[in-house]
Amino acid sequence: MKKRLLALLFTGLFTLHQVNGQQLAAEKTVDISGKANRGYIGRVERNDQTREMAVTYVTKSTNAKVKFETYTFDYDLNLKSDVVDEIELTKAKEKYSWFKYKGDAYVVEGLTASPNLTGTFVIKKKQVTYSWNWFLLKYKKTTKTLDKLKFEGENGKNMYYISHYENDSNGEIIALAGEKGNASKDPYLHFQKHHIFRVDPSLKVLSDITVDLGSPHKLLYSAAVPDEKNPDAEQADWVVVLAPMGGAGLGKFEAADPTQYTVLRISPEGKIVSQSKFTTMAHTWTITGSVIDGSKIYLYGPGYAKDVAKKYYELAYIPNEAAKFTDFQLVRVNATSADFVSVTSIEEFTAKARKPEDQKKLSVYNGKKVDIRDLTIGSDGKIYIIAQDFKTQQEGPLIYTDLYLFQFDQKGLLLNSFGIDDDSRKGAIIGGGVADARFYPSSSALFEGKDPNYIYWMQFVPHSTKCVSETSGTVKTTECRPLKYPRVIKLDVTKGSFVKIEQYGNGEYFLNEDFPLVYIENNSKIIFIGETKSEKGLWVGKFDPSSL
User: Fold this and answer.
1) How many other C-beta atoms are found inside a 10 Å radius of the C-beta of residue 546?
2) Residue 336, Cα to own-chain centre: how many angstroms?
3) What percentage of residues in the chain have a pLDDT greater than 90?
4) C-alpha torsion 219→225→228→233, nearest 10
5) Which of 362, 376, 534 is nearest to 446 (CA)?
6) What is the DSSP code string of 301-323?
């Protein structure tokens, strides 16, 4: 199973304390200084040969210098050494290649695109400002659209806007546009003959590739998707899905087959990496996510299986926000075609729903709109999709509820639909209710043990929130972040049952939001990373799945 090495936030002046943990193999807290606590995660490196973990965090020293503090622990959480390195900001990246901090604020100028009132492709300047937030420990991004640019010729006034991908690292855009034809002879040419072109900030067209699909197609999905086999790549490929159009007015221009969808994978250089076709088994398909795994692309989301052979895009479209879907489609394509296309009915999700024994009500995915998130591929090729249900309010944010884990076999057949209540607590009303922990989704990760019959569903559940308020003139703004604890669920994926559920932290220790854990000992054990309730200390806990 794909596991990402997650970093550990560890900071300055400290005292080690042993914590009396009953289930964890080891558990300790570390007192930290106030200044160190305002630092942010930099890097964590593990070494299974020496059984050591080196943790580096970064804090601002002066306007010209930055401080790196590296702590090395053994796998029993004993501190072995600590090294402090204060270095000029301009030289820091040379020594620490992973160092991403670029100052409290910096600006990148680039391009954006949009259609005008007639659908013509329009390019505008934009200015992206990145401001470091010491409370959230990350950059906040604000974008300002500037003047419209004169972009005419073959790639300008003769192009119909469809979609685009902005590369903020260099200011370029990669665009998908339709070629305008003669309004009387080829009224739908702009939905048939597509151009993929790459433009730099000087409006120079760096590449232009034509894709003629032979009949009108409508954009169904467009997203930048990282490659699971190359997670550290600076830029992701762009995945585009196009569906055949049909219905009133198209007449002879209508596509011959409404079920033949096209998937384009486009590199950051504007080149076509792959162009695949597959026969869909669902229409009005709302693709909620995609994953690139080497040469494979996974696509998934709800839709309708009934009358798929008759439902062209234009005929099938309905407002999906209010829809209750009847089916769920999972597709994997290779460089040219589909490896599999599967559809699971909502009735089958109900039939294969699993719950903990002590939970009274079954948590069932019933086809209503839910937050469908990550897809993970197991080491045996089985597929897992995580989702979370929610409730809407007349006013205010969503309230997140039940958590789901859908397990499919290697060909997309649903095996189990695990469901469990979310355990977030109702909180106080601050800044319009943002302090309520239920307004924040639970995050999850999957972990495989040595026994292939079991999988460990690690949930990071909001317990409460930490908020700070700032006043600028007469305007008061409040920023909150959730404090989450780890809940580990052992699942028997062969029998389809909940085996055991444990939560850690005891209401006193909470996970780091961005870096909640690291894997050690050849990915066989875990160290949870978090903070004490007082926020004056770091909490670390070693988890051994064999003890659960």
Assistant:
1) 10
2) 26
3) 41
4) 140
5) 376
6) EEEB-TTTTT--HHHH---GGG-
